[in-house]
Amino acid sequence: MARIVMVGSGYVGLVSGACFADFGHDVICTDKDPQKIDLLNRGEIPIFEPGLKELVAKNVAAGRLSFTLNLPEAAAGADAIFIAVGTPSRRGDGFADLTYVYAAARDIARELNEYCVIVTKSTVPVGTGDEVERVMREARPDADFDVVSNPEFMREGAAIHDFKLPDRIVVGAHGERAQEVMQDIYRPLFINRSPILFTDRRTSELIKYAANAFLATKITFINEMADLCEAVGADVQLVARGIGLDNRIGSKFLHAGPGYGGSCFPKDTLALIKTAQDAGSPVRIVETVAAVNEQRKRAMARKIIQTMGGDVRGRRVAVLGLTFKANTDDMREAPSIPIIQGLQDHGAEIAAYDPEGAEQAKLVLSGVTYESSPYNCARNADALVIVTEWEQFRALDLRRLKEAMRTPVLVDLRNLYRAADARKHGFTYVSIGRR
């Protein structure tokens, strides 16, 4: 059993800490936000992630997981301290803002009294581990520690599964001592034969950005194929299946839609672009992916307006799904934001429903009427738009929806329905990349 400290109790820190505790480790999650720590100590979870509340409660009850504002007390005797603070895109240039990472490194350095492995779990640009080590040695030249890179590869909505059954565990470490500590921490996963890949720190940091940029590229590629399918009369779902059956390509992330969003892909592609430019080795493909994705999200509003005859002023548009994907309450860079704002700019009245995201949506969207169910949302609507692929939206009662609406127009940006079924119920139906 290892003694682990998570510095930062946000999405990555909280999920990682709860999973490490479930492995049997002694985990203390720290944060500088008193409100967040108070919520966690009361058994309340500040984010929505399926299964997380139950996992936290189980390990708190077992005495393996706790929460505190007191970093000095938590750090005493720690085998590993994970930095899991935010790295948002910096205004102006899109580079990752590392202010919180370096502040955490300085705070940790002040508390070290014996050997400890400092693990960067936050997503950071290449070379950050070197700078973290420099900052810490400057603050405490006498401290005994190693700095390790250990990027996370969790999907929101499936984070616990991804942590416990990972495709790979990447550890960038210099020296056998740090590798042994990390191997011990992840040893409970070895029974699942999860491959642990040891690299140098810079390679580990780049693996994270390269992985997300590649997945963002797959999404953007199939979205452009969807546009081509509409132009030539083909079916993007069959195209995706046809190419996805090739083992060299694979079927994942080949689902056409309104564009990617969330806390990772937009931020990480921009950070990789900036890193590459600074290194004098620009990544032109990724630059194009980022630009095309932003254009696509705005284009979805125009698609809806065109479907409604070119004029939405004073007309009610019902939007189903606000979060950037299903099974999360995360609104960061969600396609729904530019879609709704684009419709509002043209005079539309917006009603919206999301199973988990309404409270977060209220912080970034104004002038929206939030409804308590899909059917309330559809009431007197001139069009219904499916933006997020929540399971609750996959088997809606189309007859009931049509009866609730003023004009039966269904714009399905996730291709959840078959055109024949929608038209059988009297809808004008428009989807992505299909005839």
Briefly summarize what is shown.
Helix content is 43%, strand content 14%. The protein has 435 residues and is an alpha/beta fold.
Quickly list its features.
435 residues; alpha/beta; Rossmann fold; 2 domains; six-stranded parallel sheet; 17 helices; 14 strands; 14% strand; elongated
What can you see in these coordinates?
The structure is a single chain. Strands 3-2-1-4-5-6 form a six-stranded parallel sheet, with helices on both faces. Strands 11-10-9-12-13-14 form a six-stranded parallel sheet. The protein has 435 residues and is α/β, with parallel strands linked by helices. The chain contains 17 helices and 14 strands. The longest helix is centred in the middle third of the chain and has 32 residues, at 201-232. The protein has helices at 11-22, 34-41, 52-61, 71-75, 99-111, 128-139, 159-164, 176-186, 201-232, 236-244, 265-278, 284-307, 336-345, 358-362, 374-378, 398-404, 419-424; strands at residues 3-7, 26-30, 65-68, 80-83, 116-120, 145-149, 169-172, 196-199, 316-320, 349-353, 368-370, 383-386, 409-412, 428-430.
Give the full name of the CATH homologous superfamily of the largest domain.
Answer: NAD(P)-binding Rossmann-like Domain
> Structural class, from secondary structure content?
alpha/beta
| CA gyration radius, whole angstroms | 23 Å
Please list the strands of the largest sheet in the order they lie side by side.
3-2-1-4-5-6
Q: Span between N and C termini?
A: 57 Å
Please tell me what the overall shape is.
elongated
Helix content range of the residues, please? 40-55%
- Beta percentage is 5-15%
Q: How is the biggest beta sheet arranged?
A: 6 strands, parallel
Overall pLDDT confidence: 95
Task: Show unreliable segments.
Answer: none
The number of domains is: 2
CATH architectural name of the largest domain: 3-Layer(aba) Sandwich
Beta strands, count: 14
How many helices? The count is: 17
Task: Using the coordinates above, name the CATH class of the largest domain.
Answer: Alpha Beta
CATH structural fold name of the largest domain = Rossmann fold
